[in-house]
Amino acid sequence: MPENDRPEDHGTGDEDASLERAEPDDTGEWPAYRAATGDADPESPRLSDVPVPLDEEEEEEETARVAIPESLRKKPDPPAVDASARVAAAISQLGNQIEERFSTLQAFLDREVRAETSRERVVDRLHAELQEYKQDLLLKVQRPIFIDLIQLHDDIGKMADAQPADDEARGASIRGAFESIRTAIEDILYRQGVEPFHNEAEEFDPRRQRALSAIPTEQPELNRTIAVRHRPGFQAGDKVIRPELVSVHTLRK
Questions:
Q1: pLDDT tens-digit series, residues 187-241
Q2: Going by C-beta distance under 8 Å and a sequence separation of 6 or more, which residues neighbour residue 220?
Q3: Which terminal residue of the chain has fewer beta carbons within 10 Å of its beta carbon, N or C?
Q4: What is the pTM for the complete model shown?
Q5: CB within 8 A of 163, min separation 6: which ones?
Q6: Span 196-253: which CATH code?
């Protein structure tokens, strides 16, 4: 075959296409793959891009970091605090709590004391009203009897005063008997809480005295003063059953 007609020997391409892989440099970096011409391949990997295997401890830490959720990971210990400071803070907090509880208890006790005092006043007032109502009711029932006994007391006194003065011995004996009856009637009334009274003031008091007669006088200073005391009054406590019977001076016009 003529030499011109021989097909061009392109070869296997081992020299053109094959890559020459270099050994690592002394620097520890892998050189880039180079073509037969010596030009660098821009897509060749570098040593920095190759993953470095982890040792056992680092592998455990990485596995724990990836496998354990954030919420379950162990929190770092808080910074150490002085034990005395913690004790002082706890005592201070406890003292504040005790003071607050004590203040609440004191306020509760004050309210209870005020409520108890108010209840006692109400009970005392109700008791006094009940006693007054009882006394008024009892006096209302007994008043007619008291009035009759007081009237009998007055009548016996009139009979004793009406005894003749000519027979002194006989009159004294009768008056003595009448006085003992009057004393017995006063004792009966006293046992029921009714007592005789005389108004000490010389001025006429219409609330506690009854004027049976008026005695004229020329002296202005004697006007409305007691002239004669006829019969004592009777009272039950501060309530007048029968006023004192008197005669009163009146100024002559």
A1: 999 999 999 999 988 999 999 999 999 999 999 899 999 999 999 999 998 899 9
A2: 251
A3: C
A4: 0.50
A5: 171, 174, 175
A6: 2.30.22.10
